[in-house]
Specification:
- It is built from 27 helices and 31 strands.
- With about 750 residues, the protein is α/β, with parallel strands linked by helices.
- The chain has five domains: about 90 residues, Translation factors (Elongation Factor Tu (Ef-tu), domain 3, Beta Barrel), CATH 2.40.30; about 160 residues, Nucleotide-binding domain of ferredoxin-NADP reductase (FNR) module (Rossmann fold); about 100 residues, Fumarate Reductase Iron-sulfur Protein, Chain B, domain 2 (Orthogonal Bundle); about 150 residues, FAD/NAD(P)-binding domain; about 150 residues, 3-Layer(bba) Sandwich (FAD/NAD(P)-binding domain), CATH 3.50.50.60.
- The strands form seven sheets. The chain has a seven-stranded mixed sheet, sandwiched between helices.
- A hairpin with a 5-residue loop joins β26 and β27.
- α11 packs across α13, α15 runs antiparallel to α17 and α22 crosses α23.
- The radius of gyration is 28 Å and the shape is globular.
- It starts with 8 loop residues before the first strand and ends with a helix.
Length: about 750
């Protein structure tokens, strides 16, 4: 290549067969780390799905990664239209565990259809290691056969099959495998990659002979990092996440029937997308609630908002903001500030609103809070700053969150987003891992100190839970992007599609010259119920469900390519804000009945009171003191019901809430066709498992000082959900602000 290409550029495009295309992509960071058996995730444009593709080859020196794909849906159609010289929007990786390569002896590699592509680098590595490699490749017809010459070059012996007999052996790849076994050929390992039905057939051929057999699973995925739980498969009776536990597994332990059913999950939606049918929802009505105590917040009428994704709360007018601000007593001791995790000077900014100095109000807020439009919408003010308000003793507290939102929205309406004066560069470099609330807060605070800050984000958009978790009707993504852009204006660089722990490690960041690293990767590993039937089609983790709906905009499907299945009867398991979000999204996407199943009473429900109230207004059916015990499926592997038991409350447990106790003989079945599990998330191990010297708690969370964010590893700080477990946006921001102060001190003094 005469001139260095751009990152994500297609430097070569080749048509291998009808509907099968090869791309060589310039992705030096990925090429540097890529190993046989791993995969990348591609996204063609802002409307496309995230597509996992196994790496077919790589060239570390040239920075190239080869991927091969078959056009089977809308997003792959889009990919196929790209030409050499164009750039793919997002390329993420390398992902998954690499193949185990050693000298086994005789290895038979079986590739079917486009599965020949991932077989190639594995067979090549095994051949170079000195194994006798017998390769069997097959396709439906001669014209669909790919990589024959390449496979021949790394084969001790090569067999070719076609289903129709137009070339090579007339039959299936398993026919050749059976013959090798029948001829008493000593085989030490079999690797089979291709359609699920082919891999199942390979495993069944080798099972009676006890030949170790490895298959590579390419399941339905959304994020590819283990966050959503979408790619789960049953292996040896255990649920595995293909993207982080695989993609390779013992073929004799894989539940192939389950995988085949899951593979058909979005067939109907794919057909619909290919027809390019568009459906858009609209809404316009406003409703005012009257209150003599607190200035009411205008909202969409529940009957209307149930049918759209427009923001529920519509915001204060100038007049209503001034009226509400005039209620503030401007207390000298400012108890509300103590209740704010980021210590916003609340009476000061409210006084400016009262005086009509709305720009002055937002500048006051931004002294300590870089994300006011977000916080004004999703913070649980009722249990923090507003709880401390003196007025709450005799009535309703000042609507602090609503006033914060008003000031932030006013700034936007004026188009006058000002950046504070930034001091001269200090020469110190800081890496922030994760572009969620904690990471964005740390980045903004340190940039204002003159440090060079770079954020590394695993997904294709910055914002973390703000973009993938919280629905549009609670937090419009344009608002999040505005807040992210503001952090960028402070001089912060944001690199997306960067998985620290895979693409680059913490040690490598230090080697690249970063003086300190902040880890704010959140709580992105979903918990499931651990009940029978949980892996049936139609059971989602809340992470997957909301990521599809929010980040990937499945609520606008098929205008956007990513689908999500919402039946007519949906059960959401859980009682927190995430559960409320999943239930309310389901209702908006057409579910007739949405049941919120929670094992405690309304009083113990951890969701914000406002969110629970909005859910009830939107006809969500609360099934309280109820717990699931079994998911019931039909003959095709789809959910058709959930068996539950009634609960009663006993003595308080470690959480301080009364412990639910099963009522014997209360079993009953609720008819549903989709289930969303929203019972919490844990820490993602991708970074922590690749970082030496980082002390973890038993939960897998990073052990860090709550006041400074300092970890057991010098120069590494952490905060937010990766330390505390799943909590609120503002608490993550508070941890980020404390960590930023500690990082600045460390960079200034050099003392740990």
């Amino acid at each position: 290549m005469s001139k260095e290409p751009k990152t994500n550029e297609i430097v070569e495009k080749r048509q291998l067969a009808p509907s099968i295309t090869l791309f060589k992509l310039y992705v030096p960071d990925i090429a540097k780390k890529a190993r046989p058996g791993q995969f990348v995730v591609l996204r063609a444009d802002d409307y496309a799905e995230r597509i996992p593709l196994t790496i077919a080859d790589f060239d570390r020196e040239k920075g190239l990664v080869t991927v091969i794909f078959q056009v089977v849906g809308t997003s792959t159609q889009k990919l196929d239209k790209f030409q050499q010289g164009q750039t793919i929007l997002d390329v993420v990786g390398p992902l998954g565990k690499p193949s185990h390569i050693e000298k086994f002896g005789t290895v038979v590699c079986v590739g079917g259809g486009v599965g020949v592509a991932p077989v190639y680098p594995i067979a090549k590595a095994l051949f170079e290691r000195g194994n006798e490699v017998i390769n069997i490749i097959g396709s439906r017809t001669k014209e669909m056969l790919i990589l024959e010459d390449e496979m021949k070059a790394i084969s001790s012996e090569l067999f070719v099959t076609t289903d129709d007999g137009t070339y090579g052996h007339h039959g299936f790849v398993t026919d050749v495998l059976k013959k090798l076994i029948a001829d008493k050929k000593k085989i030490d390992l079999v690797i089979g990659i291709g359609p699920i039905i082919m891999m199942r057939a390979v495993a069944e051929v080798t099972r009676p002979h006890n030949i170790h057999t490895v298959v590579s699973l390419n399941t339905i995925m959304v994020d590819g990092t283990g966050m959503c739980g979408c790619c789960r498969a049953t292996v040896g009776g255990e649920t595995k996440f293909v993207c982080v536990d695989g993609p390779e597994f013992d073929g004799h332990k894989v539940e192939f029937n389950e995988l085949m059913m899951r593979g058909k999950m979005y067939n109907r939606e794919e057909r619909r997308a290919m027809w390019d049918h568009k459906c858009k929802l609209e809404a316009q009505e406003k409703a005012l609630k009257k209150s003599k105590i607190r200035e009411p917040m205008p909202e969409q009428n529940p009957k209307i908002r149930m049918q759209n994704f427009n923001e529920v709360a519509l915001g204060y007018s100038r007049e209503s903001a001034i009226r509400e601000a005039s209620r503030c007593l401007n207390c000298k001791n400012m108890p509300c500030v103590d209740g704010c995790p980021v210590n916003v000077q609340i009476p000061k900014f409210i006084k400016k609103i009262k005086e009509g100095d709305f720009m002055g109000a937002i500048h006051t807020i931004k002294e300590t809070n870089s994300l006011p439009a977000v916080c004004g919408r999703v913070c649980p003010q009722e249990t923090q700053c507003e709880e401390k308000c003196v007025l709450s003793k005799k009535g309703q507290p000042i609507a602090i969150g609503r006033l914060e939102r008003f000031a932030a929205d006013y700034e936007l309406s004026q188009g006058d987003v000002r950046v504070p004066d930034i001091p001269k560069p200090t020469g110190k470099k800081v890496a922030i891992v994760g572009a969620g609330p904690a990471g964005l807060t740390v980045a903004g605070e340190l940039a204002k100190k003159g440090h060079e800050v770079t954020i590394f984000e695993a997904l294709h958009k910055a914002g973390g839970v703000l973009v993938y978790g919280i629905p549009e009707f609670r937090l419009p993504k344009a608002i999040v992007q505005r807040e992210v852009d503001y952090v960028g204006k402070l001089g912060v660089k944001i690199k997306v599609d960067m998985i620290i722990g895979q693409t680059t490690t913490v040690d490598e960041l230090f080697a690249q010259g970063y003086d300190a690293i902040f880890v704010g990767t959140g709580a992105g590993l979903p918990y499931f119920m651990d009940v029978p039937g949980e892996n049936l089609n139609g059971v989602y983790s809340a992470n997957e469900f909301l990521t599809r709906a929010n980040l990937m905009k499945a609520y606008l499907f098929p205008e956007y390519d990513t689908p999500v299945r919402v039946g007519s009867k949906v059960a959401v398991i859980g009682g927190g804000n995430v559960a409320m979000d999943a239930a309310r999204v389901s209702k908006r996407m057409g579910a007739e009945n949405v049941y919120l199943i929670y094992r405690r009473s309304r009083a113990e429900m951890p969701a914000r009171a406002e969110e629970a109230h909005h859910a009830e207004e939107e006809e969500i059916d609360f099934r309280l003191l109820t717990a699931p015990v079994r998911v019931i499926g039909d003959e095709n592997g789809w959910v058709k019901g959930i068996e539950c038991v009634k609960m009663e409350l006993g003595e308080p447990d470690a959480s301080g809430r009364r412990r639910p106790v099963e009522v014997k003989g209360s079993n009953h079945i609720i008819d549903v066709d989709v289930i969303v599990v929203a019972i919490g998330q844990g820490p993602n191990p991708i970074l922590t498992s690749t970082t030496e010297g980082l002390k973890l708690r038993k939960t897998g969370n990073i052990e860090a000082d709550t006041e400074t964010g300092r970890t057991s590893r010098k120069g590494v700080f952490a905060g937010g959900d990766i330390v505390t477990g799943a909590a609120t946006v503002i608490l993550a921001m508070g941890a980020g602000r404390k960590a930023a102060a500690s990082i600045d001190e460390y960079l200034t003094t050099g003392q740990w």
